[in-house]
Amino acid sequence: MALNKLIQLSTDLVTVAEFKDHAGAYLDRVQSSGNPIVITKNGKAAGVVVSPAEYDKIQYQRALMESIARGVADADAGRVMSTEEAKSEIEAARASRKNR
Description:
It is a single chain. This protein has helices at residues 9-12, 16-21, 23-33, 52-76, 83-98, and strands spanning 13-15, 37-41, 44-49. By secondary structure, it is an alpha+beta fold. It has a three-stranded mixed β-sheet. A hairpin with a 2-residue loop joins strand 2 (37-41) and strand 3 (44-49).
């Protein structure tokens, strides 16, 4: 999962104290620039602030990767079907919904 923009250590790394003192400004910057802010505590990364849009992208990418992994596991386990079998199942499901 890659963020849209790379973290710039000179501007995007702030201490927790600095973030507390200027949280509103940092949140505005994250929103406008799209760059995440890395918050440090005792010299180590303690958290990352991203915009809501970037968070949504990360969640979507995670769900997509999990879906792909499940598909690969199904294929490896032999849980596959032909295109014709899939079409037949889809048509049967549609017909079932129409009859409700």
